[in-house]
Design brief:
The chain is of the alpha/beta class. The protein folds into four domains: 213 residues, Pyruvate-ferredoxin Oxidoreductase, domain 3 (3-Layer(aba) Sandwich), CATH 3.40.920.10; 182 residues, Thiamin diphosphate (ThDP)-binding fold, Pyr/PP domains (Rossmann fold), CATH 3.40.50.970; 80 residues, no CATH class; 117 residues, Rossmann fold (3-Layer(aba) Sandwich). The chain has 19 helices and 23 strands. The strands form five sheets. Strands 10, 11, 12, 13, 14, 15, 16 and 21 form an eight-stranded mixed beta sheet that branches. Strands 3-4-2-5-6-7 form a six-stranded mixed beta sheet. It has a five-stranded mixed beta sheet with strand order 18-20-19-22-23, sandwiched between helices. The radius of gyration is 27 Å and the shape is globular. The N and C termini lie far apart (59 Å). The N terminus is likely disordered.
Length: 617
């Protein structure tokens, strides 16, 4: 913090209660005004002060002009799940200000641009007026930069009144502008001017404070899930990427374009990878399937509409048994839906993507560290099982900054699966079948193009075929192949990432969920325990479900399956796997475009379980 800032000398609010590092800030602006720079600077500054924080960017599906909100949650207890209520509003958008004001709870704070029609007619909140236009006028700045620099006014006012350290803001801007001193200095000049105005004109009248936590956030990163997934894929050996732009998956491909040139070149500077922007999603996965057949480690990234277009090639790769990886950063559908809101609505569709009988391996990351981990594990699993592997992240994880543990470098060698060399073919006297199940695990052996042996070649078929890859319409060949593919899928249950168990003493019922619901569930479990409802929780990290999932369901009379979609898709999948336990499983699902909140989960689980126990009695 600046040495001249009065916030370095904490004052007690009028009611005597100080709320430190435990509240939410909601910044309401218009898309395309540069507010993202300001908001992320606030988030990074708080993070570097050691405070657990989480930021949610709620932006519209257009380029400029529509309303956007940025929600920052501070939690000294480390809770980073979405909250529906924000105690502090920064109002900068005339189109939404009337509604935004009504959402501030009693006891809250409203920072507002004096150009907005704010009457200060609520006695239960504190108002701070910010003369944004006047302050921008007082700076000598190019006209085209005035709209962007205006957002730094609220950064300076908020920082001064809440206690955000000025040097941490400078450090955050230095990161954002990649060390470009001129840009950093210009923005800091506006921030410091706004802070000085605040010291002279806006006495502190609210109870909300931000204070440094020494040693807080030690060894943690702030990173987006898409960037983490891209980096994990690079470390997993990806060397062919084909993609088509789509929100919210584009930044994953952008990450690959950033990291691959840095990390995947020979000592002579030659690239060892190819990144291709295809003409559409169908072409993108087609390129990936072709590259996977040729022996490359290939991947693409997309979202729900792209998955729809990829269905035909996904079925081909499943039937012909060709490895590739597809990252689905889920948004709200069907159709165009809500392109910039989050969802877990692609699970059921992707699990059985393709016409006919098929089931796919799916990885379900919950945080950036798992995005990194699954970046390389997906490539291993795809080659090990000779099949498409889908990684289902979501917009919330993919496009927002999250606190994360450092990524763990994959020390084990790449698993390329059952690939026959020329020497092995020679030892077999060329007697092998491309689609034969030699080991009883359902996984056949393959050769790669260019293998120097006369028996290496085979026909890659999406049509009916026998063990030798010869075309066949015989019923027994088709049925036998389906049975082998199902054996292969069941073998995968022993090799996909196992679920994560969270137990409490005396847990009397169970929760099952996956992905980014995790943080809200952990927080809701604390609330439930305070009400006398003690439960255990299993987070599924992959499909097909491992044996641990069935064992967990067997332990309880009631298990609630929690997910961020309308239909309860994971619930349906678990019913398929565990039909004898159907009466134990209950669905608790919601889809409104937002991440699940702990408060909603607490209310829903508590009410559902009280109904269940009452019915038993």
């Amino acid at each position: 913090m600046s040495e001249t800032s009065h916030a370095s000398e904490p004052q007690t609010a009028a009611n005597g209660a100080r709320q430190i590092n435990d509240f939410c800030i909601n910044v309401a602006t218009a898309n395309g005004t540069g507010s993202q720079t300001s908001n992320i600077a606030l988030l990074r500054a708080m993070f570097r002060m050691g405070i657990p924080v989480a930021g949610k960017n709620l932006f519209p599906s257009n380029i400029q002009g529509l309303p956007t909100w940025y929600n920052i949650r501070l939690s000294k207890a480390g809770h980073i799940a979405h909250r529906d209520v924000a105690e502090i509003l920064v109002a900068m958008n005339p189109k939404t200000v009337a509604e935004d004001l009504t959402k501030v709870p009693s006891g809250g704070v409203i920072f507002y641009d004096t150009a907005l029609p704010v009457k200060e007619d609520r006695e239960d909140v504190v108002y701070y007026a910010m003369p944004v236009k006047d302050m921008v006028k007082s700076m000598s700045v190019a006209p085209n930069l005035r709209e962007y620099i205006a957002n730094m006014v609220y950064v300076g006012v908020v920082a001064e009144l809440l206690g955000i350290e000025m040097e941490m803001l400078r450090s955050a801007l230095d990161t954002h502008f990649s060390g470009k001193k001129k840009a950093v200095d210009l923005n800091m000049q506006m921030i410091e001017m706004a802070a000085e105005h605040t010291r002279n004109n806006l006495p502190k009248r609210d109870p909300y404070w931000i204070e440094r936590i020494e040693g807080g956030n030690k060894d943690l990163l702030l990173v987006e899930g898409n960037a983490a997934g891209a980096l994990g894929s690079v470390y997993g050996g990806v060397n062919v990427v084909a993609w088509y732009p789509i929100t919210p998956a584009t930044s994953l491909a952008d990450g690959l374009n950033e990291y691959l040139p840095q990390l995947r070149r020979t000592s002579e500077g030659k690239s060892t990878y190819a990144v291709i922007q295809a003409e559409d999603e169908l072409a993108a996965i087609g390129m990936c399937v072709g590259a996977g057949w040729a022996g490359a480690r290939s991947m693409t990234s997309t979202s729900g509409p792209g998955i729809s277009l990829m269905a035909e090639f996904a079925g081909l790769a499943y039937q012909a048994e060709i490895p590739t990886v597809v990252w689905d950063i889920q948004r709200v559908g069907p159709s165009t839906g809500l392109p910039t809101r989050t969802s877990q609505g692609d699970l059921g569709f992707t699990y059985q993507l393709g016409h006919g009988d098929s089931r796919h391996i799916i990885l379900l990351p919950a945080n950036p560290a798992e995005c990194f981990e699954f970046g390389y594990k997906a490539l291993d699993l795809a080659e090990q099982f000779q099949t498409p592997v889908f990684v289902l992240s979501d917009l919330d994880l993919g496009m927002n900054l999250w606190m994360s543990k450092p990524f763990v470098y994959p020390e084990t060698p790449m698993n390329r699966g059952k690939v026959l060399t020329a020497e092995q073919l020679e030892a077999l006297n060329g007697n092998w079948g491309r689609y034969a199940d030699v080991d009883g695990d359902g996984i056949p052996y393959r050769t790669l193009p260019g293998t120097n042996h006369p028996a290496a070649g085979y026909f890659t078929r999406g049509t009916g075929h026998n063990d030798k890859a010869a075309y066949s319409e015989r019923p027994e060949d088709w049925e036998g192949n389906l049975q082998r593919l199902r054996r292969k899928f069941n073998t995968a249950r022993k090799h996909v990432p196992k679920p994560e168990l969270t137990q409490q003493d005396g847990g009397s019922f169970g929760l099952i969920s996956f992905g980014t619901n995790h943080n809200a569930i952990i927080e809701a479990m604390e609330m439930l325990k305070a009400d006398g409802h003690v439960c255990d929780y299993l987070r599924i990290r992959a499909l097909p479900a491992t044996a641990e999932v069935g064992e967990f369901i067997e332990k309880y009379d009631r298990v609630y399956v929690i997910e961020n979609n309308f239909d309860g898709q994971m619930h349906g999948i678990l019913l398929q796997d565990n039909p004898s336990h159907a009466t134990r499983l209950a669905s608790l699902s919601r889809q409104n475009g937002m991440p699940l909140s702990a408060i909603w989960l607490h209310e829903q689980i508590k009410a559902a379980h009280e109904r269940f126990t009452k019915a038993l009695a």
